[in-house]
UniProtKB/TrEMBL annotation:
Reactions catalysed: XMP + L-glutamine + ATP + H2O = GMP + L-glutamate + AMP + diphosphate + 2 H(+)
Pathway info: Purine metabolism; GMP biosynthesis; GMP from XMP (L-Gln route): step 1/1
Binding locations of ATP: S29, G30, G31, V32, D33, S34, S35
EC category name: ligase
Enzyme Commission number(s) of this protein: 6.3.5.2
Swiss-Prot/TrEMBL keywords: ATP-binding, Glutamine amidotransferase, GMP biosynthesis, Ligase, Nucleotide-binding, Purine biosynthesis
GMPS ATP-PPase domain ranges (all copies): 2-192
GO MF annotations, alphabetized: ATP binding; GMP synthase activity
Protein name: GMP synthase [glutamine-hydrolyzing]
Length: 317
């Protein structure tokens, strides 16, 4: 439509004027925001843009592989991939505090982007998909501490060498989706639920390790499959599993078990600034719970989070 066209035209012109003959890197997670930024900046400056996909070891099962396959096969973007799994898991070793996790992940990303920029040469800008609600929730608000350091806003070290290009800074998610469709991205890239930059790292309460990642990844796949099969995936803002830092008693056959608890978080929202817990059908809740308990070794209990935002937040950390 007309407003989107004029937004694209004016933003493309601004990006060209700002960048000149420099080069730009874009942090491409494969989520809606970064995909739309990459497409928009590419329209403005073509091959002066290089996208960098970082696997931080906190992605969903198969996520990095499918993101890379999509962009390399279906688009003309140049995408470098960096597998930084070990680097991030080492940096997070033994870290249980939510803000400390966010900071270490944010700093890790910047370190990697700067190293890649140096290798490419002539890179002056980092493009990223910061939206309006990210800006609001990360700034120091009337003298109060920020709610959470979103890695792509508050987490940036002051000393960062690269200047930022954030063309979505004034948009809400539904506008970003409309923009992405207008730019020619397919629905599979646009109608994805948001996934936070720190990934599964902020869905594992307490310290992160390989075993806890294994449990959460398996539960996460089941939640996604069941939501999609039931036709609920697109109806909600987000639906995901959280691994709690406690074990509870259960029974299997005639033996006692003492295993992990998965919380299911599913919310309706327009812009993530406020949210309601989703009223999923009981039979869908039941299928998700049964499958997680039967299929994921180490889990004997599933609970449903019925808190709205505020006063809770969407993610648990
Ligand atoms: P909260 O938990 O603050 O989340 O209610 C609001 C929305 O933001 C997402 N989220 C993030 N996205 N980097 C991101 O790119 C982050 O650090 C981050 N933390 C939360 C969250 O999934 C929800 O959609």
């Amino acid at each position: 439509d007309w407003t989107m066209h004029s937004f694209i035209d004016s933003t493309v012109a601004e990006i060209r004027a700002k960048v000149g003959s420099d080069r730009v890197i874009c942090a491409l997670s494969g989520g809606v925001d970064s995909s739309v930024v990459a497409a928009l900046v590419h329209r403005a400056i073509g091959d002066q843009l290089t996208c960098i996909h970082v696997n931080n070891g906190l992605m969903r099962t198969g996520e990095s592989e499918s993101v890379l396959r999509f962009f390399r096969e279906k688009t003309s973007l140049t995408v470098i991939d960096v597998d930084a799994t070990e680097f991030f898991l080492n940096a997070l070793d033994g870290v249980a505090d939510p803000e400390e996790k966010r900071k270490r992940i944010g700093y890790g990303f910047i370190e990697i982007f700067e190293a890649e920029a140096k290798k490419l040469g002539k890179v002056r800008y980092l493009a990223q998909g910061t939206l309006y609600p990210d800006v609001i929730e990360s700034v120091v608000f009337r003298g109060k501490a920020p709610i959470k350091s979103h890695h792509n806003v508050g987490g940036l070290p002051e000393r960062m060498q690269l200047d930022l290009i954030e063309p979505l800074r004034e948009l809400f998610k539904d506008e970003v989706r409309e923009l992405g469709l207008e730019l020619g991205l397919p629905e599979e890239a646009i109608y994805r639920q948001p996934f936070p930059g720190p990934g599964l790292g902020i869905r594992i309460m307490g310290a992160i390790n390989a075993e806890r990642l294994r449990i959460l990844r398996q539960a996460d796949v089941i939640v996604l499959e069941e939501m999609k099969d039931a036709g609920w995936y697109r109806k909600v803002w987000q639906s995901f599993a959280v691994l709690l830092p406690i074990q509870t008693v259960g029974v299997m056959g005639d033996g006692r078990t003492y295993e992990h608890v998965i919380a299911l978080r599913c919310v309706d929202s327009r812009d993530a600034m406020t949210a309601d817990w989703s009223q999923l059908p009981y039979d869908l809740l039941g299928r998700i719970s049964n499958r997680i308990i039967n299929e994921v070794r180490g889990v004997n209990r599933v609970v449903y989070d019925i808190s709205s935002k505020p006063p809770a937040t969407i993610e648990w950390e």
